[in-house]
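Q&A log
Question type: sequence-to-structure
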Amino acid sequence: MTGPNRSETTLGLRAVLIVGLLIRVAVIAATRGTSDLWFWRLFVNAFDQYGFGAYGHVSRLNHPPLGALLVWGLDKIGPLSLTLRVSQVLADVVTTVSISGIARHLNVDHRFAAGLFFLSPVAILTSSFFCNTDSLLAALTVAAVWMLLEERYALAGVLLACGCGVKIVPALVLPLFFLFAKSGRARFAAGFLIVAGVIFLPVLLYDPISFTQNVLGYRGSGEMWGLALPAILSGAAATILGWSRLRLLSYHLAGVSIDMTRYCVAMVVGLVTWVWWRREHDIRFPAAVTLLLLGATTVAPRVTLGYFVWFLPLLPFTFKRSQTLLVHAVASVQLIADYTLYSLGSESWFVNFGNAKPWWFARAIDILGIPLWCLCWWLLTTGLIAMYRGNRGESPSSVSYPRQP
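Response status: OK
Response body:
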């Protein structure tokens, strides 16, 4: 790339970062966040009192040690309603820079890829309003993808281990990362295992049972979604109509779907990893990570829209531009609608996720999520088919991206 072009694109990325940061600052200043702050306050108090033994005293402490200790430290700096959200905004900056780096490596328009994420309402609201650590998880995962593409294998392993230390989700892409590393597998494995050991071994040795139940056995939060969604809505309809047998059957099937979550997610991991492996190429690697996280989110029975930031950063490397814009638009509308509905009856600019009364209120929100859920299934199916049929060196969505020189 020539000097003027590099200067122009750098200026464009800076403009995106400035605009995105100003929007996030405005959101933080004008809102109070969500009820997730209550849980974090509970966790912080438990860590103050019990240390790593907190996992045995607070069953809802489902975050791995690094994420939990991070929030504990942020609480010592200042009020979590501010420090937690600021930390996630900074994580968004890291994600955006990593997206730009991936795009440059693949010879793709990095301004569209990076700008779309940083200016997306989903990314903005997740980091500056949601009050959780999903933005940091996304930052570490995307940075690990970038480093792996740049053949900095040990650093990629370190970043992925840190991502697992924030939330356990990035462990799903571990087989994919290991296969891609090839000649650098030893360095990647060493970086991952050393850092993962530092993060996880102390708490595993201190209280292995509680930690395993709370963190490794966690099945998600939020309203019904995934494979359980049709059965839950059928049960709600049967309740209204007074059809008791259909109601019992529907809710039984929903319970079975929830119990099968781990197996369904494992099937997604195996399928996506196999499809990528048979036609492996670095231009297809970010797409495989996207499809894997998208698939896990789609089949999981309990999901909040904050989870969507896990796979949104790499969408431009996976689908056509029109599809990428569509999922951002639909997810943004859904997220804004959810936050608006859950804020009813609460203080202004504060979302209470526990405010779901009467009983049909949460089911009504579930219904609003059906279009987005169907869109996720469509994207997952078309993405897998495109990757399966694709040729080496071609993007899985047949986007007219330039090939690597």
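Response note: The two ends are 12 Å apart (CA to CA).
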